[in-house]
Amino acid sequence: MKLPSFKGGIHPPHYKSESEHKAIVTCPLPKKIILPLSQHIGAPCKPLVEVGQHVKAGQKIAQAEAFISAPIHASVSGTVESIAPHPHFTETDIMSITIIPDQEQESVTFQEIANPEKESIEKLKSIVKEAGIVGMGGAAFPTFVKLSPPKDKQIDSLIINACECEPFLTCDHRLLLEKTDNLLEGINLILKIIEAPNAYIGIENNKPDAINLVKEAITSKNYKNIQVVNLETKYPQGGEKQLIKAILGREVPLRKLPSEVGAVVQNVGTVVAIYEAIKFGKPLIERVLTVTGPGIKNPQNILAKLGTPIGHLISFCGGWRDEPPAKIIMGGPMTGFAVSNLDIPIVKGSSGILVLPPEMVSDTNNYLPCVKCGKCAEICPMYFVPSMIGYYAEKKRYRDAEEFGIFNCIECGSCSYICPSRRPLIKFIRKAKGQIMARKK
Amino acid sequence: MKKYQLITNVPPHIRTPGDVSEAMQDVIIALMPAFLISVYFFGLNALFVTGICIISCKMTEFFIRAYLGRPFSLNDRSAVVTGLLLALSLPATTPWWLAALGGLVAIGIAKELFGGLGKNIFNPALFGRTFLYVFTGWYPLIDEYIRPLWWKTLGFSQLLTAKFSENGVIIADLAGRKIDGITAATPLAITRAGSPVFHTLKGYGSLLLGNIGGVLGGSALALLLGAAYLIYKGHIDLKIPGSILITTAILAIAFGKDPIFQILAGGLILGAFFMATDWVTSPITPYGKIIFGIGIGIFTFFVRNYGTRVEGMCTAILHMNVVALFIDRYTQPRYFGG
Questions:
Q1: ipTM, 2 dp
Q2: Under an 8 A CB cutoff, do A417 and B14 touch?
């Protein structure tokens, strides 16, 4: 039987076996916590604390007035050491609050709610907003915005993105196994917030244990409105538009949001965070991520405080396996950011740290001209011809690049992955997008 | 910890293992059955012509790249593919200097002067072949081809000492004794000359095997075997060759010709599966590929059956090469959500 899927896509090796069977472990506190004031898409936050001030874990330390933004909370208790630019995974320095953790580790009292089902929708939404929750699959879009679709759009489906289509990453897989009940209760809360009748949990078929476990939990709790969808293992199955197509068979129109076709998509980690925020009053101060890759001694799924430096997580996993790595990536191998500095902290959207040894790293400056093999056009999940756009982008023919759909590109990286000429298409496309936007201003 | 340098670049950070030179190697593997069967039917001449073509292509590439200062590190093996394809589209009787000239034109003009790998408009091998046919129009290569298995009629000593006529056909041994029955007309030429239907002469089996007068790449069966390998490897799909074959069959039936003969003869299989599917010179878009194939099918059918020469496939592909980029521009697929 053919499993539900989307058209196009690629089949990279999974690389998940190193960490998928390892239970989540908690990382000890680092010597320093660095919290960038921009951990989300939208306006950066303004600090609410001063240098030298003592903060408690869970205390709000920064927020913004803008609608699309998310407040930031201290992930540990300790003293604010500095508020200054600090290296960030995007390879630019970003204003960050540095906290030196103390011994006591005091926490603010979290406001528990015994029966969240009885609260008003507005109350629940404001809890999610105040908890600083953003999309934890990597995009880091403020979650309460997604939970507030336009009034004129009827939402009939909540889709839980549990595909984890990026190779190497296994943190969502572990959450499905270890936080199953929280996930299901979180789904029911979101269904109430967005006033939708049905929820679908999309899981790729390379996680049969998770599929079975979640299905059993749904049956035992008798949740008739939640359904597990067994999806083909294919990248980018977890792309928002691709996932909606695979599960509901609906195509989100160009330049429109999922609410256009009556869907809201949330990542597994986000749902668990929403549940914890509403039920226990806990803001987003820690997350589960996978620290893995052939260059690391002991790959693990780790629960770590936000702001933990990459270097601390790597030491916790035993350090390098043999030789120093050639590349360290924040996120997955298809869309993650290669970082140059081990002081860079993990943020709300960090789903993994990948350590790649030299033999897995190729030189992106050594590429051939396009041979028009058409493999990229065959696999492009947005159905355009990446090679043509890449060519126009490289030659700075921006008008042509726009005509052939450069702004439809979701930058999944499938075309660069498949290209036999090793062309860095995503690099060309990103640069061209930036140039076109700059010209339009 | 030891000192180390972290590389930072744009994602994706993993790549598929296959690259251009691997794909080219697959094309070379796919052409091996056709090459080997040509050596069986046409003897050492086939080996000789193929060798000259490949060496000529490779040397031309080397010297032009050296002259233009293009990098050699990008060894993509495509010149070997061009040489092989050129050889398979020439008769075994092609003299060495003509084969070498073909390779020189194919790589030198059709490929490197257009900008090298990926930039050429014309299929290099076909460009080189057409050049030979136009430039040496006086040269009776067209209708008089060497007869397959000719070498079986000669003794070993005769083979070693055989003399080529001015048109490259072995006509006499060294002692000057004339050898008869070595040349043969191509099947297409036979039917054009008004002979009865082809299969009463030889049968489809010979066409499939390549046991006919013609170019080296005459064995439909060997070529299809190679094409199946390329399809399995995902380098080509059936859109272009399929639409060529279907168009040819429909036209043949409509105009009262034998469709199977039209498909198997005249290098149609070689052209459809190995030349028209050339990545660089064919369209990328799905509809574009089908339009491209239909265009080649129509062009070929009328030129070979009603034109002044039987060279339909070759010219058809070259003409469609010209419009491939335009076809791509106007057959953009529907975008997701568009």
A1: 0.86
A2: yes
